[in-house]
UniProtKB/TrEMBL annotation:
Name of this protein: Amidohydrolase-related domain-containing protein
Domain Amidohydrolase-related per the UniProt entry, residue ranges: 18-310
Sequence similarity: Belongs to the metallo-dependent hydrolases superfamily.
Xref: Pfam families: Amidohydro_2 (PF04909)
Length: 316
């Protein structure tokens, strides 16, 4: 099999994987407001000044150099929203130049008058497999936003969401765990749209009460058979990356969804604010020792290949 490096790592701790969620950006040429001139006050990892630099395919290759990365999926990175298709066009050009990313999760607002046109334009790019469009959410549990414009109960948002099925797009769901009950209702209403929950449902509150609430929410959305999970991004705003604490999150999440619906993702370079790429991959590999080699292969690359309709790695 061919990797994004063009070589195979035979080291004992080298993991073979498809990275189901990462970003690249060129701040010199392209406009990302949150990385250029509009600080995101409530960024979930706090200070993100270190991200305000170009992160190109060669930077990703450098970070991933110790592992066998077969293919990658690029997830939209909040490119200028007045040009929603621009990022797709640029990432497609990066694929032609570097051979990856191999699939794109693009962006389209669901509530704007041109939502259907933007979805159709995204569908014109062969690498686009799905859409991520963040709904309006509350910053903490119990904050009332349900039914507000842009939320998952907003009729306009739901009409826009319905356009995913017309193009065969999946949906990358990014919400904190206290919105997963609402997301489960969306999944139930659109059973033919495949949904993948990003970043392990954001288990930010590691207190026993917080983890219990996260598990209940995860169990609720996992009941919907069209929902899958990206096991990724365990970083905390005010805490270090801790393997033992994160092991509990990973094993609980995989047990709730079943390993057949879980896929690995790095969320680099964002996750790099808390952990080095190689250390992240090796740590998750250690966490999965209770599972068989075949199950681990499904987790690290097989499930992402199926979900995002990637080429068979054996043919690469």
């Amino acid at each position: 099999m061919r990797t994004i490096h063009g070589r195979w790592r035979d080291a004992e701790d080298a993991v073979t994987l498809v990275d189901a969620h990462h970003h690249i950006w060129d701040l010199t040429r392209n406009y990302y407001p949150w990385l250029r001139d509009v600080p995101e006050e409530h960024f979930f990892l706090g200070d993100y000044e270190a991200l305000k630099r170009d992160y190109l395919p060669d930077d990703y290759r450098r970070d991933a150099r110790d592992h066998n990365v077969l293919m990658t999926v690029h997830c939209e990175a909040e490119w200028d929203r007045t040009d929603q298709v621009g990022e797709t066009r640029w990432v497609t050009a990066m694929n032609r130049q570097y051979g990856f990313p191999n699939a794109i999760v693009a962006h389209a607002w669901f509530t704007t008058p041109d939502s259907a046109e933007v979805l159709a334009a995204q569908a014109g790019f062969p690498l686009v497999r799905g859409i991520r469009s963040k709904p309006v959410t509350a910053r903490r549990p119990g904050s009332p936003v349900a039914g507000a414009p842009g939320t998952m109960q907003d009729e306009a948002w739901l009409r826009g969401f319905a356009g995913l099925e017309r193009h065969g797009f999946s949906y990358d769901l990014r919400v904190p765990y206290w919105h997963l009950h609402e997301a489960a209702e969306v999944a139930r209403a659109f059973p033919r749209t495949r949904i993948v929950l990003n970043h392990t449902g954001f288990p930010w509150d590691r207190s026993e009460e917080g983890l219990a609430g996260w598990r209940r929410a995860m169990e609720t959305i996992a009941r919907e058979p069209n929902v899958h999970l990206k096991v990724s991004e365990f970083g905390l705003r005010d805490g270090l990356w801790d393997e033992e604490s994160n092991r509990r999150i990973v094993l609980d999440a995989v047990a709730i969804f079943g390993i057949a619906r879980c896929m690995f993702a790095t969320n680099f370079p964002v996750a790099g604010l808390r952990v080095e790429y190689g250390a992240l991959v090796r740590a998750v590999k250690r966490m999965l020792t209770p599972y068989s080699a075949a199950e681990q292969d499904r987790f690290f690359f097989g499930n992402a290949v199926d979900f995002y309709r990637l080429p068979d790695p054996a043919t690469r």
